[in-house]
Write a structure and sequence with these properties.
Blueprint (H helix, E strand, L loop, with lengths): L4 H14 L20 E4 L2 E8 L6 E9 L5 E8 L6 E3 L6 E2 L4 E8 L6 E10 L6 E11 L3 E4 L2 E8 L4 E9 L5 E10 L4 E4 L2 H4 L4 E3 L4 E8 L6 E10 L6 E11 L3 E7 L4 E9 L6 H9 L1 H10 L2 E9 L10 E2 L5 H9 L11 H8 L18 E7 L10 H10 L7 E7 L15 H8 L3 E3 L5 H10 L7 E3 L10 E4 L2 E2 L4 E4 L4 E4 L10 E7 L7
Parallel strand pairs: 2-9, 11-18, 20-21, 20-23, 23-24, 24-25
Antiparallel strand pairs: 1-3, 3-7, 4-6, 4-8, 5-7, 8-9, 10-12, 12-16, 13-15, 13-17, 14-16, 17-18, 19-31, 21-22, 26-30, 27-28, 27-31, 29-30
Helix pairs in contact: 3-5, 4-9
């Protein structure tokens, strides 16, 4: 439809007359609201309950804001009272809500560990009666929570060679099972180490129930007097703290030091006393001994031993001839003459009593004699096929023989006799003698054997000083041992034998005769202090 111009003008004129602006009047009176906004928030409390902590696990609730007033509701802000809480508020659907209008926002809960999270959502608006509305929100995270205690520990000062174990407690403070999957110990020191206590805890992984705990140990055994530190790393399925740490420090302290000095002998020196049974049953044995003595002499020469030999019988403590040594010409013949002592001696054999009498002061092999040398090993070799009828105990005879030397290890007893304990081929075992060989680490060889040459070679090997071994005067901390030969530190070619408490050189590193061997080491402290 087309309108006539006169109709248009008439309307225009009417509009201008009706809406003329008087001084003091407002423009657009139609926009003015005489009422007030009234905010209603629903719900006013949200309980998310128990929520497991895990990757991406969240729960959400919608909150509705309604304007039940008769004026526009303006929402200025929606915020958390505690912004550290693991809640997230979405954007509002609208910030201007007309009367009878509504808008919404979403609250999302993402717990990060096992604890209660209680706070409020605050809604700021232009409601004249309720400028800030509240929505209480609460939730419980469900998760394991690891605690490693103590987190810091100082062992203090520990004597080198001692060990101090410190328990470390791994607890689950959460409300779900904790799984411990592994350990790592970070340290630049060899003095600190972890003991996972598997005998009690079992093998990894470990499941630790809420409120329960397990213990491991950090062992500190200082090897030097430098400070040490280390950090234990415990891996678990605690979502907030997958790696927990405990730090340890400590320092070693020397209790004392010792220096042993040895002069290497030019040659191995041995004083060997044969005690030969000269009773009527010994003809074959004396013959075997003399016939195979060549093997004995050759082994002495091979080992380059500085030896002395003498022979007595089981009924006489006096030497049967001169002392034999390296300078003796026709050594084998000379020994044969002495060793074949005949078979007319007493049938009441007393081998240990005769060696005891021979070793008395004034005796042929006793103190002050040419036979007994201070720096030589003293070896008794008993050859008999009968029991010993000596009047005293073997322990007393042994104690006296060992007392002839400044070091009891410088005496050794051997025997060729009937098999212990029942004998062999008509030959009886020799009591007293057997016990002395056992006590000194000597050889007890069978008189019934056909190969006496091997017997005699073995006796030489066991009757010479070991120039490769040096017994220490005190017990060392093994890691602190420093060995020098003629002032030169030996970094290889030797080992420490804890059983014998000795430094032992390899065969191709035995110090030369006349050299000076020094062994310096730290001493174990009193670990109970």
């Amino acid at each position: 439809m087309r309108f006539r111009p006169s109709f248009i003008l008439s309307l225009t004129a009417m509009a201008c007359t009706e809406y003329s602006i008087e001084p003091g009047n407002k423009v657009n009176d139609a926009d003015v609201e005489d009422g007030e906004p009234d905010i209603v928030v629903d719900p006013v409390k949200i309980d998310f309950g128990d929520v497991s902590v895990g990757d991406g696990l969240t729960v959400s609730e919608v909150v509705t804001i309604e304007n039940v007033g008769d004026a526009t509701l303006n929402i200025a802000d929606v915020r958390l009272a505690d912004e550290t809480m693991p809640y997230e508020i979405s954007g509002l659907g609208a910030v201007i809500v007309p009367p009878e209008g509504k808008t919404t926002f979403t609250v999302t809960f993402s717990p990060i560990t096992a604890q209660e999270y209680n706070t409020k959502v605050l809604v700021d608006s232009n409601d004249p009666d309720e400028a800030t509305s509240e929505v209480k929100i609460l939730g419980q995270g469900v998760a394991p929570m690891i605690e490693v205690s103590p987190a810091e520990y100082d062992f203090g000062t520990i004597y080198i060679g001692c060990i101090s174990p410190q328990p470390i407690t791994i607890s689950n403070l959460g409300n779900a099972d904790l799984t411990v999957t592994g350990f790592e110990y970070i340290t630049a020191s060899n003095d600190l180490d972890i003991d996972e206590n598997e005998a009690v805890n079992g093998e990894l992984p470990w499941v630790v129930a809420p409120g329960e705990s397990k213990e491991v140990y950090i062992d500190y055994a200082p090897l030097d007097d430098y400070p040490d530190e280390g950090t234990l790393v415990v891996a678990s399925d605690d979502p907030a703290r997958p790696e927990a740490y405990a730090h340890q420090t400590g320092a070693g302290e020397l209790y004392g030091e010792n220096l042993d000095v040895f002069e290497q002998a030019l040659k191995s020196a041995t004083d060997i006393l044969f005690i030969i049974d000269n009773s009527c049953s010994m003809s074959d044995e004396q013959s075997n001994l003399s016939t195979n003595f060549t093997a004995f002499a050759e082994e002495l020469e091979t080992l380059d031993v500085d030896f002395q030999l003498a022979v007595i019988t089981t009924d006489n403590p006096d030497f049967r001839g001169d002392i034999l040594d390296e300078s003796t010409s026709n050594l084998v013949d000379e020994f044969t003459t002495q060793a074949v002592a005949g078979i007319s001696g007493s049938g009441n054999e007393m081998p240990t009593e005769m060696s005891y009498q021979s070793g008395q002061s004034g005796g042929d092999s006793g103190p002050g004699s040419d036979f007994l040398r201070d720096d030589a090993l003293l070896a008794y070799i008993y050859v008999s096929d009968e029991p010993d009828s000596s009047p005293d105990s073997w322990a007393n005879y042994l104690a006296y023989a060992q007392g002839l030397k400044s070091d009891s290890d410088m005496f050794i007893a051997h025997a060729i006799s009937g098999d212990w304990p029942s004998g062999c081929g008509g030959a009886s075992a020799t009591n007293n003698v057997y016990e002395m060989t056992v006590a000194t680490g000597g050889l007890y060889l069978s008189v019934c054997a056909t190969d006496w040459a091997s017997h005699l070679k073995a006796l030489v090997d066991s009757s010479t000083l070991d120039l490769s071994s040096f017994e220490l005067s005190d017990f060392p901390v093994p890691s602190t041992i420093v060995v020098t030969v003629d002032g030169v530190v030996q970094t290889s070619g030797w080992t420490y034998d804890a059983v014998d408490n000795s430094v032992n050189f390899d065969d191709d590193h035995i110090p030369a005769g006349g050299s000076t061997i020094e062994v310096q080491y730290a001493l174990y402290g009193n670990c109970s202090e």
